[in-house]
C-alpha cells in the first residue's frame, strides 16, 4: 500500500506542485523573451516588440503561449517532415512558411525556431521562439511591400527544415538565408537571439523535469491544458449564445485597385462546438490586405488661409460631411489605428515636414487643447536670439529645423562651397529640399550629416521636456523630413534618453513611422468614419 502511494506521488501532480509548475513555465517564457528583446538587433523586435516565445508538451500541444492574437499550428508543420521519433536532443527546427503553418506565421518576415526537449531519454516538450526579422529579401527593403501581389515578393520562404542536428548548426542553410537579406548582420543577430532563447527554454525545462520528474511534470501539463479547455469553454458559453450568427465587414481596397472586399463570417454555436465559416467571403485579391471649427486660424506657413471656412466650403462642394484637423493630428490617428502606436494608450506623434507639429494621444483619445492648437511644438523657442520664424518670433524650433529650414541651410551650404555633393545637386534647381539632403546623406556627405545631427539634437531637446512632462508610452517620428532615417532618429533618441528622467525613458521606444505618407490618409478615414458612424 505504501509503495502504491509513493508511486502515485511520483506520477500524479498535486495541487501545490501544479501551481509551482505553472509559475515556473511562465517564468521560463518570460526569461526566453527577455533574451530575445535584449540581444536581437532588429527594431521590429527591440522596439516594436513583434516577437514571442511559447512552450509545448511532447505532442506539440501549447502549454504557455503569447498575448499576441495568433493562431495556427507551430509544431505540426515540423512533424510532417520530421516525425517525432526521429528527433534528437540538440535539434533545432526552423520555418517561416505562412501556408504550411496554417496561420501561425502571418507573413514571411516572421521566423519560427523550435527545439525539442528531452527528459529521462524521452521527448517531453518543445521550446519555441517567433520573431519578426527586419529584412529577408523581397521587392522592398524591410520586406514590407504594400504593392506586392504574391507571397514570393515578400522575401525568401523557408519550409520546415532542421537547422541544427544534435547541437551542430547547419551553417549552409543560414548562409543562404543571410545572403538574401539587405541587412545580413542584423538578420544574423536576430537569428542568434532566437536560437539562444529556445536553448535557454530547453535548459530551463530540463531543470523542471529534473526537479519533479518526467511523469509528474507531464501530468502537470495535462492538468493545465484541461484547465484551460474548461475555462475557455465556460467563457465562450457565457459570451456567445447557441445558434447561428452572421456578420459582414468590408475592406475598402487592397492597394492594387480592387475593392471593396467583403468578409463574410458565419458562426455556428452548439453546446460542444463553435465553427467559424468564412467560405462566402469574396475571392482573394492581388494586393496584401491588412485587417485591420473647420477653419485654420493664423497658420504661420499658410497666411492667406486665416479663418477661411474650409469645412463648410468643401461640404457644399462635395455634398457630404467634412471635417478639418491639423495634419499631425490626423497622422497620429493613423498611427493609432494601424501603425506602431496601435497598442499604446498614451503617445506622441511628431511630424517633421515643412513645419514641426506633435499629435498628442491621451487614454487612446486625441488631445487638441482648449482652442485646438495643442502640440504646436514647432514654435517652442529653441534659442533666444535665433533666426526669424514664419510666426514672427525668433529662435523657434521650426526656424532651425524642418523642411523649410533644412532646405535653406542645405542651399546655403551648396552655394558657399562647403559641400560639393550638395552643390552638384543644386545645379539646375533653385533650391535644395530635404530629399536632396537625404540623398547626400546616403552618399556620405559630411555637411548633410551635420545638418541632420544638428536638427535631430534640437528636436530631441524639445521632446525630452515633453517626455518629462507627459510620460508617453511611445514616440513616433514621421513626416517628409523623417525620410532622413536612422541618422536623424539616433540623434533624437540620444538627447531624449540623456536629458529625460530614467523613469520616463526606461521603457520608452522612439521609432520612425512605418506608415509613411499613408498615415494621414488612414487617420483621415478614421476621423470621418468615427464622426459619421458615432452612436451618440
Strand content: 15-25%
> How many domains is the backbone divided into?
3
Quickly give the CATH architecture of the largest domain: 2-Layer Sandwich
Mean pLDDT: 85
Q: Cα-atom Rg, whole angstroms?
A: 28 Å
Shape: globular
| Major sheet details | 7 strands, antiparallel
Number of helices: 17
Number of strands: 15
CATH superfamily of the largest domain: ATPase, nucleotide binding domain
CATH class categorisation of the largest domain:
Alpha Beta
Portion in helices: 40-55%
Stretches where pLDDT is under 50 for at least 5 consecutive residues are: 289-295
Strand order of the largest sheet: 2-1-5-4-3-6-7
Q: Tell me the span between the first and last alpha carbons.
A: 70 Å
Task: Determine the CATH topology of the largest domain.
Answer: Nucleotidyltransferase, domain 5
Describe this structure in words.
The chain is an alpha+beta fold and 536 residues long. The protein has 3 domains: 11-231, no CATH class; 241-292, no CATH class; 303-532, Nucleotidyltransferase, domain 5. The chain is 41% helix and 16% strand. It has 17 helices and 15 strands. It has helices spanning 2-11, 15-39, 43-46, 76-81, 171-179, 184-212, 214-239, 310-318, 327-338, 397-400, 403-416, 420-426, 434-442, 446-470, 486-499, 502-505, 518-532, and strands at 51-57, 62-64, 92-95, 110-119, 122-132, 161-165, 168-169, 243-251, 261-269, 274-277, 347-352, 356-362, 365-367, 474-478, 510-512. Strands 2-1-5-4-3-6-7 form a 7-stranded antiparallel sheet. A hairpin with a 4-residue loop joins β9 and β10 (274-277). α11 packs antiparallel against α14. It is globular. The N and C termini lie far apart (70 Å).
Amino acid at each position: 500500500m505504501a509503495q502504491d502511494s509513493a508511486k502515485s506521488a511520483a506520477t500524479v501532480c498535486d495541487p501545490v506542485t501544479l501551481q509551482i509548475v505553472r509559475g515556473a513555465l511562465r517564468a521560463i517564457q518570460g526569461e526566453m523573451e527577455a533574451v530575445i528583446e535584449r540581444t536581437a538587433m532588429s527594431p521590429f523586435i527591440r522596439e516594436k516588440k513583434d516577437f514571442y516565445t511559447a512552450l509545448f508538451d511532447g505532442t506539440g500541444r501549447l502549454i504557455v503561449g503569447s498575448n499576441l492574437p495568433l493562431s495556427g499550428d507551430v509544431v505540426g508543420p515540423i512533424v510532417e517532415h520530421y516525425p517525432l521519433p526521429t528527433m534528437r536532443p540538440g535539434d533545432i527546427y526552423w520555418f517561416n512558411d505562412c501556408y504550411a503553418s496554417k496561420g501561425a506565421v502571418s507573413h514571411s518576415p516572421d521566423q519560427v525556431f523550435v527545439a525539442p526537449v528531452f527528459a529521462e531519454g524521452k521527448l517531453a516538450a518543445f521550446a519555441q521562439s517567433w520573431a519578426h526579422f527586419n529584412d529577408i529579401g523581397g521587392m522592398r527593403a524591410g520586406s514590407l511591400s504594400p504593392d506586392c501581389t504574391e507571397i514570393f515578393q515578400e522575401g525568401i520562404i523557408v519550409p520546415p527544415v532542421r537547422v541544427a542536428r544534435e547541437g551542430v548548426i547547419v551553417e549552409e542553410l543560414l548562409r543562404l538565408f543571410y545572403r538574401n537579406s539587405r541587412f545580413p548582420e542584423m538578420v544574423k543577430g536576430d537569428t542568434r537571439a532566437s536560437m539562444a532563447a529556445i536553448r535557454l527554454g530547453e535548459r530551463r525545462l530540463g531543470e523542471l523535469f529534473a526537479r519533479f520528474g518526467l511523469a509528474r511534470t507531464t501530468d502537470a501539463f495535462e492538468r493545465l491544458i484541461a484547465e484551460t479547455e474548461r475555462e475557455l469553454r465556460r467563457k465562450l458559453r457565457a459570451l456567445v449564445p447557441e445558434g447561428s450568427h452572421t456578420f459582414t465587414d468590408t475592406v475598402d481596397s487592397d492597394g492594387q485597385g480592387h475593392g471593396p472586399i467583403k468578409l463574410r463570417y458565419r458562426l455556428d454555436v452548439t453546446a460542444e462546438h463553435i465553427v467559424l465559416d468564412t467560405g462566402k467571403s469574396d475571392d482573394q485579391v492581388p494586393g496584401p490586405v491588412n485587417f485591420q471649427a473647420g477653419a485654420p486660424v493664423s497658420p504661420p506657413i499658410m497666411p492667406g488661409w486665416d479663418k477661411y471656412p474650409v469645412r463648410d466650403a468643401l461640404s457644399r462642394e462635395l455634398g457630404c460631411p467634412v471635417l478639418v484637423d491639423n495634419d499631425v493630428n490626423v497622422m497620429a490617428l493613423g498611427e493609432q489605428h494601424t501603425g506602431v502606436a496601435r497598442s499604446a494608450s498614451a503617445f506622441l506623434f511628431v511630424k517633421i515636414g515643412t513645419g514641426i507639429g506633435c499629435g498628442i494621444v491621451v487614454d487612446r483619445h486625441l488631445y487638441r487643447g482648449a482652442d485646438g492648437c495643442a502640440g504646436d511644438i514647432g514654435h517652442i523657442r529653441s534659442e533666444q536670439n535665433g533666426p526669424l520664424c514664419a510666426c514672427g518670433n525668433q529662435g523657434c524650433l521650426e526656424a532651425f529645423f524642418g523642411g523649410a529650414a533644412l532646405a535653406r541651410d542645405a542651399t546655403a551650404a551648396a552655394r558657399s562651397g562647403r559641400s560639393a555633393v550638395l552643390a552638384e545637386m543644386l545645379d539646375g534647381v533653385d533650391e535644395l529640399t530635404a530629399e536632396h539632403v537625404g540623398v547626400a546623406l546616403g552618399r556620405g556627405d559630411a555637411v548633410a550629416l551635420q545638418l541632420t545631427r544638428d536638427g535631430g539634437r534640437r528636436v530631441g531637446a524639445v521632446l525630452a521636456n515633453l517626455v518629462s512632462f507627459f510620460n508617453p508610452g511611445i514616440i513616433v517620428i514621421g513626416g517628409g523630413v523623417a525620410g532622413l532615417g536612422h541618422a536623424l532618429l539616433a540623434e533624437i533618441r540620444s538627447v531624449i534618453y540623456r536629458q529625460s528622467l530614467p523613469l520616463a525613458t526606461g521603457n520608452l521606444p522612439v521609432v520612425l513611422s512605418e506608415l509613411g505618407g499613408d498615415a494621414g490618409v488612414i487617420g483621415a478615414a478614421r476621423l470621418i468614419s468615427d464622426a459619421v458612424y458615432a452612436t451618440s
